[in-house]
Structure formats: C-alpha cells, structure tokens
Amino acid sequence: MEIPLDHGVDDINVLMKVGAEHAHDIDALCTDIASVIFPTAVNPPTEATISAVSAKLIQLVSDLEARLLSKRNPHFPLTWDILSKSGFLREPDLIDFILARVAEDRLGACIAQDKVKSASAYLDHQNGILADAAQTLLAAESLHRSGAGNTYLGLTSELLYKLTWQIVAAIEIGEGARQPAIIASAKSLLSSFCEADRAQDAARKIVHFSDDPTHTLVGNPEIYGLHLHVAALSADLELDHDHILRLIDASSSAPYAVMLAACGVSKTHALKNIFLFRGDLITPREAGIFESGYSNLQADEALTQIGYWASARAQFLSGGKLP
Amino acid sequence: MSGAQLINPISGEVDADGRLVSADDALVRLNERAGGRKNELLAVPAIKTLALLAIKLQMKLSRAVRVADDAEHLELWIEIDPTPDKARLSIISWRVLPEVRRTGSTSAPAPIVHENVMKFDPVGRLVRATGDASHGLMPSDFGRDGRALLASVFEGGAALDSLLSSMSASIAVTSCSLTRVSDGLVFHVNGGSVANGFELQFERVEEPSTPIAAPKESVAAGALFGKNLAPVLRQPLGRIIANAETIGSELQGPIRENYALYARDIANAARHLSALVDDLGDLEAVERPDFKAARDNIELGDVARRVAGLLALKAADHRISVHTPPEDMLVPAVAEFRRTLQIILNLVNNAIRYSPDGTNIFIDIATVDAEAVISVRDQGKGIDPADREKIFEKFERLGRSGDGGSGLGLYISRRLARAMGGELHVENAEDGGAIFTLRLPNS
C-alpha cells in the first residue's frame, strides 16, 4: 500500500491521519508478507502475467470511467486510487475475469487466424438466430481485435453492474457530492447492455442452436476458432467459458487433457489440440504422462473429476478462499 | 442434443419475489412437474435465479439454462427483459439433452460393509476415519491432504502409488495391499467415489507379512528427494524460468541485446536444472531396493509410434525423420507401459539431440530368442567401443556439457530395463550410427 506522506503542516489532523494510515498498514503488511512467504499457487505468477493483468485492469477501469464521464482522463483512471484501496479491484471474480482475458489473448494467438472459419460458416445459415449469433460473434471478435476503448463490453452482466456502481461511488467520493448525471449515465449503460453481444455468449448460442455435434467443434479449434471451441467444451462439460480458458492456459496441459477426455475426443485430436495451444511448452515428461494416461481415462471418470473443479471454483469465486 | 428452436417462444413473467405470475402452458407444465404452481414461487431454481438476477441488475440477460424435467434433462435458451418489478421470460429454444452425463460415479454408491473406513472430501482431505483405519491418527490429521497422509501412514511402493493415482483420478481401488509403517500390519484396501468424496475401506490381513521386531521407518520416509525436495525445487525453478523468459523476450520493454541473451541463458540453465530435478527423483526411485515395475501386457510397435508422435515436433525442428515399424507388425512384451515409454522417449530424445540435422532415426521391433526387442538407431557418429558401458554410468557425459543432458537418463533407463526383467545395451551400426537395444520379456 502506498502511504501518502505529503500532509501539510497546516493540517490540524495530520497526526490522526498519519496514525490511521500506518495503523491500517500494519494489517496490509501482514497479508502482503504472508502471500510472499507462503504463495499458494504451485506455479507462481510471472512478471509477464502480473503486468498483463495490471494493464488490462487499468484499461478496463479507464474505459468504463470514460464511458460514464463522457471524457477520458489522459493519464490514469481518476478512481483508481479509491477503488484499489476499497479492496474491490482485488475481488476474485474480477481478477479471474482479467486472467481469463489474458489467457484468451495467448490462446487466440496460437491459432493461425487466416485458416479459421470461425463463425463465418454460419453467416448464411437458414436459421436466422444462428446467422445473427454468427454475425454477433464476428463483430465481437473484430471489436476485440480493434483494441481499447470498450473493454467493459466483454464483462458479464454481474461484473459490469458491480464495477459500474463502484466507479460511480468512487467518483462521488472524489467529488464530494452526489453526481446525478453520472448515475443517469450508469443506468443508461446498464439498461442498454446486452450480454448476448459478447463473443463468448454468441459462441455459446451458436453451439446451442447449431445441429453440428459439439465434438466437431471441440476437436478442431484450428478450424472453428477459440470461442466456438471453448463454447462447445462449455456446453459439453457444463463449465463456465472463462473457467475453461483458464484451464487450457494452466501451466500444465493435464487439465486440458482431462477436459478433452471427458468430451470423448480421440487421442489423436487431443494431442493435436494440446500441441496447438501449448506447443513447445510441453516437456517430454508431461508428454509421457499424457501418452500413458489419456487412453486409459474414462470419459465418465474425467467428467466426475471436472465436476469437482466446477464446484471448487464456484466456492472460490463466491468466498475468495480456496476450498 | 435433440429438439429445436421454437417457432413461437414460450413466455412467462416472474415478479421480484420469484413468483411465476403468468406463463404459457409449456412453462406452467415444467413448473408443475418441478412441484410449483402458478402465482406461487417458481419451482425451477435455475430459471428463478436468472429472473431475479435480471430484476436486480435491471439488465437484459440471454443464457442457456439446464433444467431437469421429471424424465428428461433440458437445455433451454432464455432471454429475459426486466422491468423494476418483474422479469419477462422468453424461452426461444427447448432442447432435450441426449443423456444425463453428470451423475457422479456411474456405479451405485459402495455400501459400507467395513468398520474400518477413511473418507475424503471432493478435494481429497481426510474427513472421517473409523475403526482400525483411525489408528495412530491425530485430530490435526483431519482436514489434511489425504494422499500425503496415506503416504506417511503406509509404506511406499507400487501399491501405494497405484492407490494414490486412483484417488487423484477418482477411480475405484480394488484389493490393494498396504503395510502400515507404525505396526507393520497389512491391509487390503478397496474403495471408490461416493457421494461428496472418496472412501477407502480397510480389511486387515490377520498375519503381518513379515515378522516385525520393532516399528520401522517407512522406505518412503527415506525418499527425501523425490517426495520432499523435488516439489520444493520445482517452484522456484519455474519462477526463474518464467521471469528469465519474460526478460529475454523483452515483454517489459527493450533491453540491451547482451542482457536479453543472458536472460535466455538463465532460462535455459534453469530448464536444465528442472530436468535434473526430474531425473534425480527418478534416480532415487530406481535405486530403492524395493523398486518394482508393473507387469503389463504391452505392444512395442504401439510404444514406438507413440514416442514418434510425441517427439515429432522436436524432430521436425532438426529436419530429422523418425521411422516407426509398420502398423501390422506386432511384438508383445511384458513390462510396465509407462516405464517402457520413458526409456524409448529418452533414447529417441538423445538420438535427436546428438544426430546431425537432416538425418533419420529408426525405431525397430522384433522378437528374438523369446524376448521382445525394440531398438533405436540413429545416423550420428556412434559410440566409441571403450565408452559403451561407460555411458550407462551415473552422471557420465563423455566430456559433453551445455547440451541440456544430466548424465542420468541412460543410467535410469538401464535400471528401469533391469527392473522389468530386461536389458538395455548399445552397439554401433555398420554405417556408424548408434543402436540402443532394449530387450524385454515377452511372457
């Protein structure tokens, strides 16, 4: 935590303020040191991941703030300091969302986009809902590729709602007064937001309405693209889209292999998919474990195991503690 | 999935308290089959939750929802448009799922027929121990990782490894024999997935397998490196590799070129150390006096093709072709599949590492003198006759360094081959390359 040390000598409450800040800081220090000495993740975060998460978080808050204020702060989000001190920005569902976006970027880059049919195959489909969903997916992917400015459109309804009102509150604290115009702007944003326009929801809709068997989409990410691949896994395994992205991007290929086994993907296709997303990250040892274990893994056993992952994640995201 | 998009969407309205205030017939029937009635609380939890969420957020939602009918499992696509006091539902698709897949274990829950039981929660922590199975356990052991606990209570070995693997994968365990470290008692262990966890039943074998003079220390307790140190070392090494790669790839911004090269050197060195950690873990295992390999019925052509598939990308990087035996050629052997795979992976990895780019590697199989034989032949410069035994010695590198090898791979491979009742040796081919030959029993 950053301690402001610029209290003026004229401030009559300076002693009280500095005292309160440092009193709070001893608690913060306690949790910070504990997490450094006793990291809980087997694979600690890399500098690259921390940097990517941080950049995306700043971008997200900045974009949403700009939408609410109708102007962009040129340097840094105005509300950053208040939000970070409130603890909201470290809530597990928000960090999980950002990590899923980091995973999405990395995994998306593994697929040669010029060969991907993605949703374009459904654009002329006779089922209007399917064609519309394909159009939505392509638009969302294009919006994502075009860069910053509207990253909040990728949030779930629940997260957008939470983050929007947190930012409104932070602006009001910063300004020291109610901000009716900003509240109106927030209401307008939320009422006009449609989560069906997000890439993952459009992809899930395609999987639901398409008559193509899900295992075709699961087995061929290089043809159908990342979103349809993950949406098909999500439909088959009853796992959340972002959960699947993070599992594929885990530091071992084993979770992905278990998911593919649960979907009944052949070993050849599973190996092809794993190489597609992980390439030279696979060690011979890991490859050996896959080779000796995959064929023996029954789909039902894998599915049962995945059920535990889903419930553990739900517990973690709701409570913020590892089950 | 079967069923289809609905021509006329099924509509309904849910108020802010979760009551179904109006609905088309299909939704009414679905609600009734779930035990609800019109103008009462909606009895389909997934739909009710979504409706209340839309009202709370005042945002349109459009999601797939899975619900259980009395006879079927359904996936509905629901669009919800909220007003401040109610949510208008529109079900635009009604699909019947072909089968119920997520039912936990497909087999019936195992009845508890023994008093001696250990039960673990879904993430593997010990939650209950009864009868003789609780002997020696402390209150603080409850809530601990069950696999670590079992590894400290019972002697290590293939049976314990198999049990722990089965627990990790939630696979049923049948008649696994374990010896308790503290008193030398032998138990037959059975178990499998049960509702909300995993359960093991312990049946005591009356006579101890060997006379016990005094409580003895577990063999596994001596496994200092593989079980204790290796996981501790892997974590910082993983961090070093990741951070050095971050610096080397200049993700945080440009740095001086020689600094980027240093960072890549650090990453490579740490990767080498990480491989060494793996090797030392294996080394410790194969040097244990009680090390035994399983006797699986395997087919060497299958092993050859799997290895070629796994190393195809690495070989392609060096323009090396790996040739495997024809599919119709079958050479059965009796050996542990994973260990055989490990040996051949090691041999082909070495062949790729030390062969000139653009050459060929041949994996051949045969049955010779009632033995199953698999050989790996490369087109490198071969092994000097004086070094042919030396290369199987521990940490022997034949003067090489900096190529990522630890000098343990061949030593471990030969120990593994011998543990399976086989042998591993090397000779030179007529054209000068090396031929490593693994012989295994075939019956």
From TrEMBL, chain B:
- Supply the SMART domains for this chain: HATPase_c (SM00387)
Broad class of enzyme this protein falls into: transferase
Checking SUPFAM superfamilies in the record gives:
ATPase domain of HSP90 chaperone/DNA topoisomerase II/histidine kinase, Homodimeric domain of signal transducing histidine kinase
Every Histidine kinase domain range: 228-443
What reaction gets catalysed by this protein? ATP + protein L-histidine = ADP + protein N-phospho-L-histidine
Q: Which organism is it from?
A: Sphingorhabdus lacus
Which keywords belong to this entry?
Kinase, Phosphoprotein, Transferase
User: Which processes are annotated in GO (biological process)?
Assistant: osmosensory signaling via phosphorelay pathway
Q: What's the protein here called?
A: histidine kinase
Q: Which GO terms describe its molecular function?
A: phosphorelay response regulator activity; phosphorelay sensor kinase activity; protein kinase activator activity
Enzyme Commission identifier(s): 2.7.13.3
